[in-house]
């Protein structure tokens, strides 16, 4: 059984990751709720250890299932994304908005790995477990995600020789 206090303590991290994945507060809350519901239902399967990694893995699976089921995010053009509220200094707000827009231009796979490593501070091994991918794939995706993020933030477009394959 999952300790209630431990589960409640992870909610802010789950919300932060869900918000970064979806770029929509309502969808993020729905994703967190779906994840917590699944965690409570499957709580007997949790083995004491890293609860955060277990919950993030579950959230990843819920997100992927929703994406494949057609409840996927409808990615909007960067100019259609909601503005980020300005914190004390305007420059910080502008930089945050630019970063959020740049993150939304990354592929789902690259954004997930970047957020898990950079935002959630998971190790490559923990990230690999959450995503169900080999550690080499995590490292490769992270490298590509960082490079693409740099390009987007520098105002460069995607190279013409790259083609999205589904």
List unreliable stretches of 5+ residues.
none
**Helix run count:** 7
Q: Considering DSSP H and I runs of 4 or more, what fraction of the residues is helical?
A: 55-70%
Shape: globular
From the N-terminal CA to the C-terminal CA, the straight-line distance is 39 Å
Order of helix and strand elements from N to C terminus: HHHHHHH
Strand proportion: under 5%
Radius of gyration: 17 Å
- Biggest sheet details: none
- The average pLDDT is 80
Count of β-strands: 0
Structural class: mainly alpha
Brief description of this entry?
This protein is mainly alpha-helical and 166 residues long. It is built from 7 helices and no strands.
Write a structural description.
There is one protein chain. It contains seven helices and no strands. The protein is globular. The chain is mostly helical and 166 residues long. 67% of the residues lie in helices and 0% in strands. Helix 1 (4-22) crosses helix 3 and helix 5 (108-119) packs across helix 7.
């Amino acid at each position: 059984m999952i300790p209630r206090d431990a589960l409640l303590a992870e909610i802010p991290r789950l919300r932060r990751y869900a918000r970064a994945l979806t770029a929509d507060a309502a969808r993020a809350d729905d994703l967190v709720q779906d994840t917590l519901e699944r965690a409570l239902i499957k709580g007997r399967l949790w083995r004491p250890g890293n609860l955060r990694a277990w919950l993030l893995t579950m959230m990843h699976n819920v997100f992927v299932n929703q994406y494949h089921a057609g409840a996927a995010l409808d990615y909007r053009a960067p100019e259609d994304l909601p503005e980020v509220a300005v914190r004390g200094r305007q420059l910080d707000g502008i930089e945050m908005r630019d970063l959020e827009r740049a993150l939304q231009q990354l592929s789902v796979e690259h954004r997930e790995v970047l957020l898990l490593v950079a935002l959630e501070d998971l190790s490559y091994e923990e990230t690999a477990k959450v995503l169900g991918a080999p550690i080499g794939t995590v490292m490769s995706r992270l490298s590509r995600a960082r490079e693409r993020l740099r390009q987007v933030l520098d105002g460069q477009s995607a190279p013409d020789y790259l083609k999205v394959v589904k």
